[in-house]
Amino acid sequence: MMIIFIKFQISDREKNTLAWKSKTEQAKKGETLRELQKLNVQIAALEREKATHLYSRRSDFRGDFSQLEEIDSKSNDEKKTEKIKLKQQLEKISHMVKRFHMELRDIKPTPEFVEKLKITMEEIEGTINAFKEQQRKQYEELMREEKTTAQEIQALERKFESWNQLSEPVVSKKPQQKPLASARDITKDLPQEVAQFEKFLEETGGVRGGWDEYDHQTFLKFRQRHNGKEIFIQHSLVAIPTRTEEEIRDHEDWYQSYLSLNEKKKESIKKWRKKKEEDKDDVISKVDQQLEDEEAKKEEKKKKKEEIIQTEKRERYKQLNSYRVQKELERAQAEERKLREELEKARKKEEERKRQIEARERDEVWERAQKDQQKEIAARELVKFRERDKKTVLQRLANQKAKEEEQKEKEKRLEKLKGQVEIEVSRDPNRLLQPTAGWTSRTKDKGSSGTGPLLHIPHRAVPSWRQGP
């Protein structure tokens, strides 16, 4: 009784602990959902502002931010794909938990069922832990990228500030037209070589030096064909009748300047990228160091958490083992009861079989006695039947003999009568057509009475309306 009371106390304590944990988790869940809702509202507002100021068709900077728009669209697609994958994983875990609840509704006190429940619990726990580990790694990667990006932005801001402090490049003596505001805004934060190249293009008419597409391509075709020798100018003069020799030579000078500045721009961009990579490596090394420190802290927390989990597992295994021992004891008692019942059934069945054998033997003895008695009666009756049949046969033979004698006497009398009444008549064919004696006497009687042949037969009277004309 004391053990049962202690068990009830433990179960009540566990119920209270579970209820407290459930309330705490629900409160945390509600707080997290509210925080997520606020973040979603802020994200939606930022998205609207971004679409209005950066990606709008009316904006002057749409061409500059087109690449950023493509990256943003790609990132949104990746987020949607990741959201679908997360939803599928959560649905899978939910399905496994529901299936486990369904199995708990129909508990069977067998070791196989307990082992099956254990395997299912371990499978669910492994799936949840794998999902948590995967999400933890993804969040750490995102945090690392966020820190790296923030530090890169800070480094770029410092670079831009240093570029602003540099002296302005010398403006050409013959500016053709004032550059646009958007172009000035773009080139002021670029490296010096890149800015010089952009200004050169703006001042000289773009990448074709103010020429149209056809004339410039023809110029390049002949220049490449003759490897930049003087002879290509004469061929170009024939192929481009709208241009003079002086214009072609000026265009050649412009093209050489274009190639020189373009090469300087490429070298400058290469150096800038190299410098950027070096800065990025420094930033990444710092971020990696910070992440390693954070990783060490997380590993320590993880170890503590694993120790707590292992302790809880051991407690659960102890409870499961006690439950298993209890179920084994109940199963053994049930098997013992079943064995006793089977032995009792076997004993009753044996007694019933013996009783049936004795009854069958008594029936066989009685049937043999009945058969012997019936044989004796049948033998006596058979003798009687034979005597009666013999008498009947003799009587039937006597009757048959008397009938035969009577038939013979009858035939003899008929023979005698035939002998007494024998008539002999001669054959007369004419006699066949002569009237008989009866007919002759009849005609004689009619003649004597005065009646002649019948000439008129009376009929009923016919009405006048039926007599006709």
From TrEMBL:
Coiled coil segments of this chain: 76-159
Annotated Basic and acidic residues bias: 401-416
Source domain of life: Eukaryota
Record key words, sorted: Coiled coil
Annotated spans, Disordered: 336-371, 397-416, 426-469
InterPro entries: CCDC148/CCDC112
Protein name per UniProt: Coiled-coil domain-containing protein 112
Natural source organism: Mytilus edulis (Blue mussel)
